[in-house]
What does this fold into?
Amino acid sequence: MRLPLIPLPREVVVTGPKTVLDGKSPVTVTDAPKLPEEAYELTVRNGAAVIAASSDAGVFYADQTLQQLKSVCGGRCSEMVIRDAPELPYRGFLIDSCRHFYGVEEIKRLIDAAAMFKLNRFHWHLTDDQGWRIESKRYPLLTAVGGRRSNSLFGGVNENREHTGFFTQEQIREIVAYCAARCIEVVPEIEMPGHFTAAVAAYPFLGCTGEPMEPEQKEGIFPNVLCVGNDDAVAFVRNVLDEVTELFPGMYIHIGGDEAPRTRWRHCEKCAAKMKRLGLQDFDALQGSFMKEIAAYLKTKGRTAITWNESLKGNMLSPSDAAVQRWMDRKGLCLDFAENGGRLIESDFYHYYFDYPYGMTPLKKTFAYDPFGDCADAVTGVEGALWTEFVRTFDDLCEKLFPRLLAVAERGWSGYPSRSYRDFTYAVHMLLPLLQAAGIPTLPPNRWDPDVRSRVREVPAFFKGSLTPDFFRQALGNIK
Ligand SMILES: [Zn+2]
It folds into this structure.
């Protein structure tokens, strides 16, 4: 039986005729120690529901299924037993709080919506070139200076206003607890050594040149990265991570590692000296050895680092050092990493990056994507990412995420393939009222899958012709 629920449950067995199921139906919870951690069994019989699970997470997921069932069944549904468990242990969503900042209430609304669909990791992007958004007690200038920029010029749009905002440690504890109550672990991301301009603006000694600067105002990749050759700068990073690990109790800490230009390192005596001391042949190895050093530091605190796939370039990171998040890997380094036993989190740029228009990444394209590809055994997670350079309102942020994030939730829980696209979109339609009740605006259905003519118009308009023909071929193609 194909119920219009998301994610699709593993097994549904109809056991009897229709019975009453509504807000007044009693719910009983029983302990089922033999079930795996996140698994559950939900029985609907004689106007009541019985949940069996071995953990709080199992009970929570059964309850999400029950809420969806109530929402779609109109007060009566067949007697049934649902036996369910996730395919992947890591089912994530990324929110970038740096480029455009939304506060505690908005973040909580997104967490509520993600929890409904059994996502269990909130990857919180808290530091970048354009803003540092997490309070540090030891280094207050990170937010006082690095948390403000005098204007925003993303995509050539002049917003003509100062942009500020950060989360206090108290607010962060509140969000972490809010997530924990919904069986979501927060994975904070402190970007390094690239995307580091806001930190260098706050504390210029962190950069190779020591020159003063301001946080960036545009999208892009910027040269003022961390001076990894400076021991004081590396100690600074460790001190920041001490505060971060105090705030976030989860297993994973994301340390970035993407898009770090070598411009400053090339002319830096300290960086050159470190390369010589460690016998490193090139800058890829310099970055790799730095990421390895930080990952090892986190390991001493019982944590596992995650890095973006670029950090594999120097061939320094081994599977025991860190998990790797793959967003774009033209050289196939992730495949080698996987073959050696590495763990991968899949966030493919062309399918799971939701800052781009539906014309580039229609719902159907996201749904059709097989994140397991050539290295199924290595894939430990999937994650939908919402970067906010081009997201100027919270409504737009929600519409970019929903419903595309639901396709990621289904893939992470139900595996690949799960069901037909038609069945999936029917379920999305049926569940829209739940999202609306949670205060989440969703993109209107007639825009989920724009026709080719709209796509050809929408994509170049979004990028204003600044990217290569190869990019457009990839962006517009690849629909299964
Ligand atoms: Zn340097």
Remarks:
- The CA atoms of residues 470 and 476 lie 10 Å apart.
